[in-house]
Design goal:
The chain is elongated. It has two helices and no strands. It folds into two domains: 30 residues, no CATH class; 30 residues. It is an all-alpha fold. One of its GO terms (cellular component) is cytoplasm. This is Purkinje cell protein 4. One of its GO terms (molecular function) is calmodulin binding. InterPro entries: Calmodulin_Regulator_PCP4-like.
Length: 61
Amino acid sequence: IRTWRTTALLSGPADKPGRTAKNNVPEDFDIDMQDPETQRAAVAIQSQFRKFQKKKQDVKS
């Protein structure tokens, strides 16, 4: 029997090699998620993605 995480629909079984069961992040993941520069980069990426999605939605209409 395999054990599943609470995010099983997105991630798969908990016994997947190289992943921690706690937060489904690869063990070699070394990006500091609390770094302000990382947070600014994430906001910039999300902003560009939203613009892309809006443009794609407008083209369909």
